[in-house]
Amino acid sequence: MHTFRIGGIHPKENKLSAGKTIIRAEIPPQVVISLSNHTGAPAKAVVEKGDTVRVGQIIGEANGFISANVHSSVSGKVSKIDSQPDVSGRKQLAVFIDVEGDEWLETIDRSPDIISQCNFTKEEILAKIKNAGIVGLGGATFPAHVKLSPPPDKKANILIINGVECEPYLTCDHALMLCHADEILIGVTIIMKVLDVKRAVIGIENNKKDVIAHLSKLAKNYQGIEIQALKTKYPQGGEKQLIDAVIRRQVPSGKLPIEVGAVVQNVATVFAIYQAVQKNKPLFERVMTITGKDAQNPGNYLVRIGVNLSAIVAQAGGIPETTEKIIAGGPMMGRAVASLDTPAVKGSAGILFINNEQAQRKEAANCIRCSKCVNACPMGLEPYLLMTQSENSLWDKMETNHVMDCMECGCCSYVCPSNRPILDYVRYGKTTVGGIIRGRK
Questions:
Q1: Is 207 inside any structural domain?
Q2: Which runs of E-coded beta strand occur in 318-417?
Q3: Do residues 258 and 389 share a domain?
Q4: Is 63 part of a structural domain of the chain?
Q5: Cα distance between residue 95 and residue 157, in whole Å
Q6: Last residue of a domain, one of 249, 279, 309
Q7: What is the Cα–Cα distance from 269 to 184, expressed in whole angstroms?
Q8: Which of 257, 279, 301 is the last residue of a domain?
Q9: Sequence-separated (6 or more) residues with CB below 8 Å from residue 258
Q10: Which of 307, 356, 393, 431 has the most Cβ atoms closer than 10 angstroms to its Cβ?
Q11: How many Cβ atoms are within 10 Å of 176's Cβ, its own excluded?
Q12: Do residue 143 and residue 255 come from a single domain?
């Protein structure tokens, strides 16, 4: 069974909410929609205090090449445009909307009918994706219309769909593939049309046998789409790792997947593209997982963008008493949050409750030169060396040793027998080196 060839680990999966149906999250009295709901420049607000908005109405226009539109997820009145801390604590400009009913734009097709035929041109599809504010929902939140517009001298010959969901605990993509398989497959054909490719592969890890069976049966009705079961291995959801697993091509250091003729999209992004193109529905809601070993009701929730995370958690049974740490995302690549008093964004894949026992960090000891971090690194780096260089502010050496290739997957810290905080130091060094590189440019 295929998998990527360099590094990787197999942490405990803890897919507590696997197989659970999608629950629609409640809409609170107010939402706070960040204008930085994507990678790149923040959107520019196109509404003012006192304006009345409806579900799906644009409230922020893309403000640059790498930027994306932002839409209202509710109907109501704009109470203010002000800064609001995100899950990392950074203040971002946001639109505050007091909810009044749930009135959608008439242009959005709300019927349950599945529309399989797409008669739009490539240019029309890209315009719909851009207008709908679709971004990568696997975590990067990169504007989808940009990713689907490779340079004229680069040609894709395969579309790879990421249905791996290798991060422990998270099951939102799993639930989406079970509930909306046909829409995802239609979305794949739409992207194939944009890229002018004849072959698409949906990669799914073997721990999702129900999804593999379901999609394999349906995919027979769609020309050029294959379902490929992959060995369960973390971090197979990384673009470069998935490409290596599926087509045995390795993306060179510092290059993008298009260099080897591939374009990768997450299944949730594909579903959003289907909704944008076939249903005229902007991206204003997404499925996210609320989970944890002591969670009262771990599950997958369809959440409107801008809903306060604390309101979603309350619907899922509240914060368990044993909680020591709350993670936005999964345990490997997610970030600890200081407060749940922050809104859901397009990149919100999950909330994870870590109990007292799980949250304890063991005391770090000296490096024993065992090379486990080197063997585990899926990017072929030397994490122990990068940590040492970061500790000693050797930024030029870190750059030479390709720290910018680090995907911050956490494999190095996970396998270290000395409990050294390798990722913490490498992440700090990567941020610093990235700033230096941008300064040069």
A1: yes
A2: 323-328, 335-336, 350-355
A3: no
A4: no
A5: 41
A6: 279
A7: 9
A8: 279
A9: 150, 151, 154, 156
A10: 307
A11: 26
A12: yes
**Structural domain includes residue 435:** yes
Q: Name the residue among 64, 80, 25 with its Cα closest to residue 143.
A: 64
Digit-coded pLDDT (tens) for 192-224: 999 999 999 999 999 999 999 999 999 999 999
Q: How far apart are the first and last CA of the chain?
A: 43
In a domain? residue 422: yes
Q: What domain count does the chain have?
A: 2
Q: Judge if 130 and 274 occupy the same domain.
A: yes
Residue-range definition of the domain harbouring residue 412: 372-440
Q: Which helix (H) or strand (E) holds 144?
A: helix 144-147
The string of pLDDT tens digits covering residues 34-82 is 999 999 999 999 999 999 999 999 999 999 999 999 999 999 999 999 9
264 & 163 share domain: yes
Q: Which two tokens stand for residue 412?
A: 């190095």
The phi and psi torsions of 56 (rounded to 5 degrees) equal 95, -5
CATH number at residue 219: 3.40.50.11540
Residues 6+ apart with CB under 8 A from 94: 32, 33, 34, 35, 81, 82, 83, 84, 306, 343
88 confidence band (pLDDT: 50, 70, 90): confident
Cα(359)–Cα(403) distance, rounded to whole angstroms?
A: 27
* 3-class DSSP assignment, residue 262: strand
Count of beta carbons in the 10 Å neighbourhood of residue 151: 8
Whether residue 151 is preceded by a cis peptide bond, meaning omega within 30 degrees of 0, is no
